[in-house]
Specification:
It is found in: Cytoplasm, Cytosol. Belongs to the Rab GDI family. This is Rab proteins geranylgeranyltransferase component A. Keywords: Cytoplasm, GTPase activation. One of its GO terms (molecular function) is GTPase activator activity. The structure is a single chain. By secondary structure, the chain is α+β, with helices and mostly antiparallel strands. Among the domains are: 197 residues, FAD/NAD(P)-binding domain (3-Layer(bba) Sandwich); 94 residues, Guanine Nucleotide Dissociation Inhibitor, domain 1 (Orthogonal Bundle). Helices cover 28% and strands 18% of the residues. The strands form six sheets. The protein has a seven-stranded antiparallel β-sheet with strand order 9-6-22-18-21-20-19, with helices on both faces. α1 runs parallel beside α12, α1 packs across α14 and α12 crosses α17. The radius of gyration is 25 Å and the shape is globular.
Amino acid sequence: DDCSIPSTTLLIVKYTCLPESIIAAACARSGQRVLHVDSRNYYGGNWASFSFSGLLSWIKENQQNTDIKDESEDWRKLILENEEVISLNKKDKTIQHVEAFCFGDQDAAEDVEEAGALARVPAAGTSVAEEVAEEAEKECSPLESSVPGAENWESEKASSTDPASAEEGNITEINSENESSHNTASGESALELGKPEATLSEVSAQEPKKITYSQIVREGRRFNIDLVSKVPCSRADVFNSRQLAMVEKRMLMKFLTFCLEYEQHPDEYQDYKNSTFAQFLKTRKLTPSLQHFILHSIAMVSENDCNTLEGLQATRKFLQCLGRYGNTPFLFPLYGQGEIPQCFCRMCAVFGGIYCLRHSVQCLVVDKESGRCKAVVDHFGQRISASYFIVEDSYLSESVCVNVCYRQLSRAVLITDQSVLKTDSEQQVSILTVPPVDLGQPAVCVIELCSSTMTCMKDTYLVHLTCPSTKTAREDLEPVVQKLFSLNAETEKGEELEKPRVLWAVYFNMRDSSGIDRNSYSGLPSNVYVCSGPDSALGNDCAVKQAETIFQEMFPTEEFCPAPPNPEDIIYDEDEITAEETGFNNSPETKPESSLQESSSRGSTGVKEHIEE
């Protein structure tokens, strides 16, 4: 029998990634009934954040190439004669070429333990996934709760002196603590890294504390390691850069003023709409240094793939965000990127959404006559009906994606012992853009996080490197790692440490399914919507726009993710106020429940506003 759900139900199939989580929250907020399922035992999918042991388990899982086979085909008996099925993949195949290495100092301990997780210490410079992950504990317990993120709150309490901040949206603004020391964190970083005389790798002459691998494992819950890192912050004013002459700064100001109102002057860019943004910049009265500065440090777009309109939009967005929350145009989420999807899942749960982790779906059931999807069949053999279905791209079968052409991202995550930037402050978030060495190669975005972001243990830094793939992740990114960091486990006595030392590293390729036209998928029912995984952009614009577009297609008359009303603005009738003052309230609609529901969702709704800005 069908597990019937009202026709207003939205069924989220496969994955609690950011786009799906935003859609689920928006639908629940507008009064729809939502069932959100994920075959994994943690929230976020490829947007998730892990403790160190959790990441080791993730590495091992993605190094195994075995496919998950159906133990039983009994569920096919639920399919009627006038129905057909669209099978879904049982295993996520978006992650490839995973390689992990340990470069940290070894101590005498053979076995080290992290909050119940046991890990063996491997030899320096060797692959750690097979030796360590086998004993590592899964980070997020598979709680099937109506309040997602509950399992993470325990981790937050263990790793934070102020866990309350995590429950209020986990979004913080980190301003530049020493503006003069952050000149290299602005556009200057992109300029200097491309030159032999770059001084970005200079650090304090004082030798940093030695961190052993066993310490990293023991303090593993202090880490919140993102599979994809976005929304960086801590950027000094672009006009403080010493790399630009005063004349160039005037030229830059004139160009940025044009970018703010470029739509009012279409004649100035109309002829270059089909050109790249880099080509358009060459037609303006800008020096090569300014062109480089704008491309990599303000617009922060690809030199080869970004067209003129996209570049102008990116530049305007950067300028519009300046000064909104201090002197930086960026915000960074405490405890990692994985907290943002969970915030929206919590918002959905507050408005009645139901969550089921470790709950995989076998197939979509399609009516042959109407061509619409009627239901899904889960791994229990249960048939669940709904009106709309959301599925993450990675679980569509090859027969559906036969005409889809995917891009790939190259990712690396490093744990280091020092900051790559010379600064008096030990607590900072920095972003560098490493220009391509060869023409046609992509630039590499480097984001460095300190321990105050609650993403790594004290006296260490977490470094994320990302670029569009041309080869495997290690082949794409290792040259940049070698340029900025030292991979030697030991340094000779008396030798000055000129570069931060890499203690541990992982490389992997991730599928970029953003920007794929819906018509590229073969035989997809009209009421089945596809969400993409993370893209290569610095922010979350793509995910937010995709979520809003899908929501409006399903419910065109509903407002997308409206903010809850301020309790002070709610007007109550005189009878209710009198009853409150006397301690009695006979009204069937009690104020406390309404207020609690509205205020509970405020933090999550605020996250949407932060993401867009």
